[in-house]
Amino acid sequence: MAGKKVLIVYAHQEPRSFNGSLKDVAVAELSRQGCTVTVSDLYAMDFEPRATRKDITGALSRPEFFSYGVEAYEAWKKRSLTSDIIAEQKKVQEADLVMFQFPLYWFSVPAVLKGWMDRVLCQGFAFDIPGFYDDGLLKGKLAILSITTGGTADMYWKTGANGDFRYFLWPLQHGTLHFCGFKVLAPHISFAPEYASEEERKGMVASWAQRLKTIWNEEPIPCSPPWYFGQ
């Protein structure tokens, strides 16, 4: 939709990968709609995943006992977080939709993307106490996960070896994104692309592009336990 701003937080090492194709088609389709699209290519940026003392550029508020959460909150208030965090926060602040494109690692995100969440979504910027879940500081923004898996779709049902895919979405969509106030759109999961034929992979990319044509008309999921775990 013309005038909308989208941030794609992308975590894959290989530009020609299937994840790379999904990211590229999202950039192309959303740009075609007149959106302004920004990509944070975390591996290409050599993004620092570790939350350390180096993230605070000024003096510590409690130098005698280092607490990352406390110091990041104080640094956010004093505008003394390190420049890479501030740059990412600015991108998030400006975005109407934040899209995460990544391969599933151990039912979760790759370390570089976990580090992005740990460092960028700090108290004061993304949430406060009070000021979380429906009152999170990023309310009014949309988020969506676009994930690729190694396992096939039948492994991710309730009766499959991995259990329902919604189980592993709980900490990411609810505990992270919803906690920060995002309205969460239904995830887009591309199951087992490496076991698919070239034709099937093309179809998977095309289905993502097709969904993005009407992404702005979608209703967010009800981000509460029943969506994930049933009644």
From TrEMBL:
It is found in: Cytoplasm. It catalyses: 1-(beta-D-ribofuranosyl)-1,4-dihydronicotinamide + a quinone + H(+) = beta-nicotinamide D-riboside + a quinol. Its EC number is 1.10.5.1. It comes from the Eukaryota. Residues 4-212 form the Flavodoxin-like fold domain. GO terms for cellular component: cytosol. Keywords: Cytoplasm, FAD, Flavoprotein, Metal-binding, Oxidoreductase, Phosphoprotein, Zinc. The enzyme apparently serves as a quinone reductase in connection with conjugation reactions of hydroquinones involved in detoxification pathways as well as in biosynthetic processes such as the vitamin K-dependent gamma-carboxylation of glutamate residues in prothrombin synthesis. This is Ribosyldihydronicotinamide dehydrogenase [quinone]. It comes from Tursiops truncatus.
